[in-house]
Design brief:
Elements lengths: L1 H17 L15 E5 L2 E4 L4 E4 L2 H4 L8 H13 L10 H13 L6 E5 L2 H16 L3 E5 L8 H6 L15 E4 L14 H19 L4 E7 L14 H12 L2 E5 L23 E4 L11 E5 L1 H4 L17 H16 L2 H23 L3 E7 L2 E6 L17 H12 L2 E2 L1 E3 L2 E4 L7 H17 L1
Parallel strand pairs: 3-13, 5-6, 5-7, 7-8, 8-9
Antiparallel strand pairs: 1-2, 2-3, 4-10, 9-10, 11-12, 12-15, 14-15
Helix pairs in contact: 3-10, 4-10, 7-8, 11-13, 12-13
This protein binds pyridoxal-5'-phosphate.
Family: Belongs to the class-III pyridoxal-phosphate-dependent aminotransferase family.
Organism: Rhodococcus rhodnii LMG 5362
InterPro entries: Aminotrans_3, Aminotrans_3_PPA_site, PyrdxlP-dep_Trfase, PyrdxlP-dep_Trfase_major, PyrdxlP-dep_Trfase_small
Length: 441
């Protein structure tokens, strides 16, 4: 134990001396050291066990240290650690086949990337080349990644310092009844008006200039707004009407998170391109990609696709994806996510909303839930401002952690996003901690 503590203390010291962290003011950081993980739990540098209701960055869908995935990575490492992208390789081929077997429609060609941002970069590039048009519409209240095009597609404050008048990306509002942009009172009105707004945006931007509409099927970091029935179908219809590609960003919502293989599945909508990362192999080795419909892929049958990367379809990452997808199939992991959401997390969170005035709304599906924290239920004043934090929100995070819960928080929301493998008891344990932490604020 003493050795483990010393190692953790050294890791922290070196981190502060040498590691430059994402999205952070470096001098203000006090990162938590994580020394070990298993299933739904992680251990911090002081040896405390925490229930991981964040799945890290909402990526460990299969839980931590799944033995089949760990073994597959070790086996692949012993056999063949790396191979250039121009060669064929068993791990990559089988991962592509397995992914294609779960994507909607005929999206059966897979271009592998290192993560979600570059998947979106490539999907946009493919749509622009396929259509010969340039502009892309994406939503406010969205996150699409940290690289140049992806951060400009993003509809949250992280775009602002990176936005130098990026040509060719226009934002629009999606449906979000709780904070309706459209003065709607029902989901039906919200859906209808959000689609009218999108069609107006297309009309005023000029359909002949728009290559693609790119959207998170269920916006994740922005607040888990499950689309009202008919919205995705309506977006698909507008794309068809105006000759626009539909790109579904399933980086966070895909691979079981929403209680289905892909969040788009219940709508029956087939996008032209679908991007994925995170849950495809739970982030055990970095991997992302684009699933491509045959008509888009055909644009690059005789003309070279102008894009690529050294690690496209890296054997360790794709071997991890093969083992992850097989384990998800064999162990009913997507079904577990759906059931735990329906039987435990959904009812449990609604019960908490009945008890705590600080909860303005609870929404979600599967193991993908957002709890909207407000100072006033009538005005819906957020507990922390858009793009910011507050003392009360900080206290909530600290209390949760003291009680043994690692949560994913964004502005005034806490997200309940445990692994898809979470057990009933673990889900109940997390709800009980949330209950106590909310009582303390
Ligand atoms: N798209 C969505 C919906 C995401 O949630 C994220 C990451 O959180 C990304 C894209 C970017 O993925 P990555 O961080 O792997 O580049």
């Amino acid at each position: 134990v003493a050795d483990a503590r010393a190692e953790a203390a050294r890791a922290y010291e070196l981190d502060r001396a040498h590691v430059f962290h994402s999205w952070s003011a470096q001098a203000k950081l006090t990162p938590m050291t994580i020394t070990a993980s298993s299933g739904s739990y992680v251990w911090d540098g002081d040896g405390n066990r925490l229930l991981d209701f964040s799945s890290q960055l909402v990526n460990t869908n299969i839980g931590h240290q799944h033995p089949k995935v760990v073994a597959a990575i070790a086996d692949q490492a012993a056999k063949l650690c790396t191979v250039a992208p121009q060669h064929a390789n068993a791990a990559r081929s089988e991962a592509a086949r397995l992914i294609a077997s779960h994507t909607p429609g005929e999206l059966n060609r897979i271009f592998f990337t290192n993560g979600g941002a570059d998947a979106n970069e490539h999907a946009v590039r493919m749509a622009r080349l396929h259509t010969g048009k340039y502009k892309v519409l994406s939503r406010y209240r969205s996150y699409h990644g940290g690289t140049e095009t992806a951060i400009n597609l993003t509809g949250d404050p992280r775009r602002w310092p990176n936005d130098h008048g990026n040509a060719g990306i226009v934002h629009f509002f999606g449906p979000f009844l709780y904070r309706s942009q459209f003065h709607a009172e029902t989901q039906e009105q919200e859906c209808e008006r959000a689609l009218e707004h999108l069609e107006q945006t297309i009309a005023f931007e000029g359909p002949s200039t728009i290559a693609a509409i790119l959207l998170e099927t269920i916006p994740g970091t922005a607040g888990i707004m499950v689309p009202p029935p008919g919205y995705l179908e309506g977006v698909r219809a507008l794309c068809d009407k105006y000759g626009i590609m539909l790109i579904a960003d399933e980086v966070m919502a895909g691979f079981g998170r929403a209680g289905t293989w892909f969040a788009i599945d219940p709508s029956g909508v087939v996008p032209d391109l679908l991007t994925f990362a995170k849950g495809v192999n739970s982030g055990y080795v970095p991997l992302g990609g684009v699933a491509i419909a045959p008509h888009v892929a055909a644009s690059f049958d005789d003309v070279a696709y102008p894009g690529g990367l050294t690690y496209s379809g890296h054997p360790l990452a794709t071997a991890a994806a093969v083992a992850t997808i097989r384990a998800m199939e064999d162990e009913g992991i997507v079904e577990n996510a759906e059931r735990v959401g329906r039987e435990i997390l959904g009812p449990g969170l609604h019960e908490l909303a009945g008890k705590h005035d600080v909860i303005g709304e609870v929404r979600g599906t599967g193991v993908f839930w957002a709890v909207e924290l407000v100072t006033d239920r009538v005005t819906k004043e957020p507990l922390a401002p858009y793009g910011g934090t507050s003392e009360a929100k900080g206290r909530f995070v600290a209390e949760s952690k003291k009680l043994g819960l690692l949560s994913f928080v964004n502005y005034n929301r806490t997200h309940v996003v445990p692994p898809c493998t979470v057990s009933d008891d673990e889900a109940r344990e997390g709800l009980a901690i949330l209950d106590e932490a909310l009582s303390r604020i």
